Amino acid sequence: MYKLMVVFILLCYPIIVPPNVSSESNYLGEKECFACHRPKKELYLNNKHGKIFSSAPGTDLEAKGCEACHGPGITHKEAVDKEDKDLKIESFKKSTSTPAEKNKRCLACHENGKRSQWQGNAHAMSGVSCVTCHKIHDAKSESMIPTMEVCFTCHKERRAQLQRSSHMPLREGKVTCMDCHNPHGGNGPSSLKASSVNETCYSCHQERRGPMLWEHAPVRESCTTCHEPHGSNFESLLKVKVPYLCQSCHDVQFHPSTLYSANQIPGGSAAAAKQLLGKGCINCHSQIHGSNHPSGARLQR
What is d(CA 118, CA 112) in angstroms, rounded to the nearest whole number? Predict the structure, then answer.
């Protein structure tokens, strides 16, 4: 009796295939695409995607060529034949699709490695799509990798910081944004590759890592407590000139609690206080990042 009921239901209510499921007959092949899009053919066949999709596809999706990303071409071809301008194939740059919908095409293949933490990172949550930064059809594969100029189109304040007298050597081409950050999502804050600010800094500044016998607590917490890593008007990327930077924390310890100024001598003389000359506090407390010297409790040696 139960089997008869199941057969009756199937006959009365046939299974409906969702309209968004594309059959193989809807795919035309890349030759059909190249018949019209000839300028794109040369670019496509000479970049990384074209070489893999056309010559050595690794999956059934890659074997579909242009349609692997742009979707089945049958609807587009019919629209062209009818001269229907409102019905076009998926065009990522001008598409009305949401960034998440556009990114699904890329993430169908690029979901591991550097992209494994894309979901939930700052760029994904801000509605940035892959084609905002990447040139998919560029003939040169290396051009598909964004440069710092791409970053600066949004992060304009970072471009301004690099023009300051003390800056990270990005202007000289020795460092790029991607040396510290993973724009697809990282283990640390602000999409840093390392798990913390300090670990990122230590990848180049190993001499600051420690552990030290006498440690400076703010240094161990975060390098950005004292330094502005993208650029500063003060030497060594300091946020504020010493001794004022030091006195932002050390305002009552061992020295007078008043801020140092040019009027330290009794009688209102304009002569500068000795603590303001040269490197200020660092004249004496030279091991500000930490010391291993037995008598360096105050970071003096």
Answer: 9
199 Rama class: left (phi>0) / alpha (psi -120 to 50) / beta: alpha
Q: Which two tokens stand for residue 162?
A: 């690099």
Q: Name the maximum alpha-carbon separation found in the chain.
A: 110
CA 71 to chain centre: 28
Phi, psi of 197 (to 5 degrees): -60, -45
Measured between alpha carbons, how far is 33 from 45 in angstroms, rounded to an integer?
A: 13
- Distance CA(50)–CA(66), nearest Å, equals 8
Alpha carbons 30 and 60: distance in angstroms, whole number: 14
Check: CB of residue 71 under 8 Å from CB of residue 62. no
Q: Which two tokens stand for residue 94?
A: 């001008």
116 vs 110: CA distance, rounded Å: 8
CB 267 within 8 A of CB 255: no
Read off the pLDDT of residues 170-191 as tens digits, 9 standing for 90 and up.
Answer: 889 899 999 999 999 988 899 9
Q: What is the pTM of this model?
A: 0.75
Closest CA to 295 of 287, 252, 283: 287
pLDDT digits (tens, 9 = 90+) for 263-279: 554 555 555 666 677 77
Helix/strand/coil (H/E/C) assignment for every residue in 34-53: HHHCHHHHHHHHCCHHHHHH
Q: What is the dihedral of CA 205, 206, 209, 212, to 10 degrees?
A: -120
Angstrom distance (rounded) from CA 298 to CA 301: 8
**Helix H or strand E segment including 55:** helix 48-55
> Whole-angstrom Cα distance, residue 259 to residue 239?
17
